[in-house]
Amino acid sequence: MEELKRAVAREALKFIEDDMVVGLGTGSTTAYFIEYLGKLIMEGELEDVYGVPTSHQSRLLAIENGIPVVGLDEVDAIDIAVDGADEVDPQMNLIKGRGAALTMEKIIEYRAGTFLVLVDEGKLVERLGQRMPVPIEVIPAAWRAIAEEIEVFNAEAELRMASKKDGPVVTDNGNFILDARFHRIDDPLDLEIELNNIPGVVENGIFADIADVVLVGTKDGVRKMER
Length: 227
Ligand SMILES: O=C(CO)[C@H](O)[C@H](O)COP(=O)(O)O
Hints:
- This protein is α/β, with parallel strands linked by helices.
- Helices cover 27% and strands 28% of the residues.
- The protein has helices spanning 2-12, 28-42, 56-64, 102-111, 143-149, 188-196; strands at 21-24, 50-53, 78-84, 87-88, 94-95, 112-120, 134-138, 155-159, 176-182, 201-204, 206-207, 213-218, 221-226.
- Strands 2-1-3-6-12-13 form a 6-stranded mixed sheet. It has a 4-stranded antiparallel sheet with strand order 8-9-7-10.
- A hairpin with a 2-residue loop joins strand 12 (213-218) and strand 13.
- Helix 1 (2-12) packs across helix 2 (28-42).
- Ribulose-5-phosphate is lined by residues 25-29, 83-86, 96-102, 105.
- Substrate binds at residues 26-29, 83-86, 96-99, 123.
- Its EC number is 5.3.1.6.
- Keywords: Isomerase.
- It holds the Pfam family Rib_5-P_isom_A.
């Protein structure tokens, strides 16, 4: 599994050129990409490349690996964003947010000239929600009201609890995460919009229609899905 993640991360380097501003995703697959990208920059193989982190995790990793970091408000545009995903359907719609960084990820990836997704073949599903719940970032005071409202969508939502802290997971933005299991997601784009219409929802982990390229690590090599 780790070798498949490394393979897609290495392949992603082919998309990076001098003078690019690169959105840096969150998670274990992107961590390999950040490591390899930093190496190329440190060795002088790539020049004037800047990273825009999507989380505390990617910011710390970028600094550790020698990638110059800038904020979203310091750049005119993002050339490419590179990130992992938890599920990918045949239309390249995604579920993201296992790492609770979905809001900043979506803000940056929506704006990127190219959004490149890195997954292993175990993440491919016929229909979103088949294996993973949809993470929803919510304003803390509203978590219970939103969890109840989500039932209207034929789903059950659970407050995500932390493992190395007492109480709930608190996102980089100071909010809570609800993990919502939907019985069936027929129209990801519609559900993405509907969920964001609920007051108190900051963002949700359905990324419909924004991935441009998906690199899939398989035992037989890296496969490319493209729009
Ligand atoms: O959305 C994410 C974090 O919020 C991650 O990109 C997603 O969970 C995939 O992570 P990994 O590469 O570790 O499987």
